[in-house]
């Protein structure tokens, strides 16, 4: 088929097709007088390219996804990127509404814009200092519940089971596991037929997770920019992940969970936390006294939550909250609307 017929059939223009050829996305056969001839395979490829352009992928991304023959993972990434932009636009509209509605003075405008700037920065600035991609293959073997001087995984399995007990999932429900890692928590919920989406910022963790649980839907994404629609989820769970976010970002993470939850949604987080700042100092002093420098260093290296702050935020937003302590550093926070 020649270029004009091809363009007509695909509702595009010969110029667009030539552009994709120049970018190396397609290589149609050339005949006499340099006429291009498009075979069936070229038509499929062109159709794919046009579809991917329509959802906003760049030509470079399309080229990489066609060459790697891995369109699905590029679509996943594109979805997460679009969610990120959409969430940012919503933040901007909310600020604009406040600017318009409250007829603020110059100083208020400045404050509102500063707040918006802070939120934008927070949503984008998180970096994986722990290199979870590199930990992915070995992660499950590193979960040892005994035998370490400072054992963050003591009560790991008990805690994950209790998350499920408190959430009481129903088979027709949809749940999201944030920082799903290799999917251990999500899998407990799927055992009873509940549909789960596992979100994680680490591509390699999600690969291992999918190998273990091919039936789990995984999405690349971030606590502060979840690739999930508003009010579309029955519950949100998370284990051993929130403590990778600095304190200032944790409330924004709770707000993201709240955004995706239905009106009677539940949140359950099992994580490394202290009841409050005073308890943190007391327990740190205990570890010091015990000569457990490993514990002190580990606590300083991560961002164990102040549970009282999370509880305050959730109660302020109208949640009923209950908590459970497994050991000195591991707590479960449960909240329902
Ligand atoms: C210690 S692993 C826990 C995995 C799993 N939830 C479990 O309980 O075994 C922490 C996981 O959280 C993910 N994670 C850390 N910070 C994150 C963030 N800001 N957004 C999304 N995932 C994050 C990491 O990539 C990693 O897979």
From TrEMBL:
PROSITE patterns: HTH_MERR_2
Xref: Gene3D superfamilies: 1.10.1660.10, Vaccinia Virus protein VP39 (3.40.50.150)
HTH merR-type domain boundaries: 1-68
Keywords for this protein: DNA-binding, Repressor, Transcription, Transcription regulation
Pfam families: MerR_1, Methyltransf_11
GO molecular function, one term: DNA-binding transcription factor activity
Protein name per Swiss-Prot or TrEMBL: Transcriptional regulator
């Amino acid at each position: 088929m020649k270029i004009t017929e091809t363009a007509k059939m695909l509702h595009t223009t010969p110029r667009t097709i030539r552009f994709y050829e120049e970018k190396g996305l397609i290589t149609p056969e050339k005949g006499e007088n340099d006429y291009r001839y498009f075979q069936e395979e070229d038509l499929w490829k062109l159709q794919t390219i046009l579809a991917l352009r329509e959802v906003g992928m760049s030509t470079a991304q399309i080229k990489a996804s066609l060459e790697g023959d891995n369109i699905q993972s590029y679509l996943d990434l594109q979805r997460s990127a679009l969610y990120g932009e959409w969430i940012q636009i919503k933040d901007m509209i909310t600020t604009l509404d406040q600017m318009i509605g409250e007829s603020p003075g110059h100083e208020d405008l400045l404050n509102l814009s500063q707040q918006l700037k802070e939120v934008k920065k927070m949503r984008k600035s998180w970096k994986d200092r722990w290199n979870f991609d590199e930990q992915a293959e070995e992660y499950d073997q590193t979960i040892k519940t005994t035998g370490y001087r400072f054992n963050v995984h003591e009560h790991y399995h008990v805690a994950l089971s209790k998350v499920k007990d408190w959430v009481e999932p129903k088979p027709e429900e949809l749940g999201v596991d944030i920082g799903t890692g290799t999917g251990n928590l999500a899998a407990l919920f799927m055992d009873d037929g509940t549909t789960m989406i596992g979100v994680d910022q680490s591509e390699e963790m999600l690969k291992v997770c999918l190998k273990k649980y091919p039936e789990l839907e995984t999405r690349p994404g971030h606590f502060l920019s979840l690739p999930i629609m508003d009010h579309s989820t029955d519950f949100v769970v998370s284990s051993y992940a929130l403590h990778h976010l600095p304190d200032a970002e944790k409330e924004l993470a709770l707000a993201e969970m709240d955004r995706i939850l239905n009106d009677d949604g539940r949140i359950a987080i099992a994580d490394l936390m202290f009841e409050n700042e005073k308890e943190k100092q007391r327990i740190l002093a205990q570890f010091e006294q015990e000569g457990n420098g490993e514990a002190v260093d580990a606590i300083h290296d991560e961002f164990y939550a102040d549970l009282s702050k999370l509880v305050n935020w959730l109660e302020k937003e109208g949640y009923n909250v209950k908590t459970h302590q497994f050991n000195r550093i591991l707590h479960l926070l449960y909240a329902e609307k």
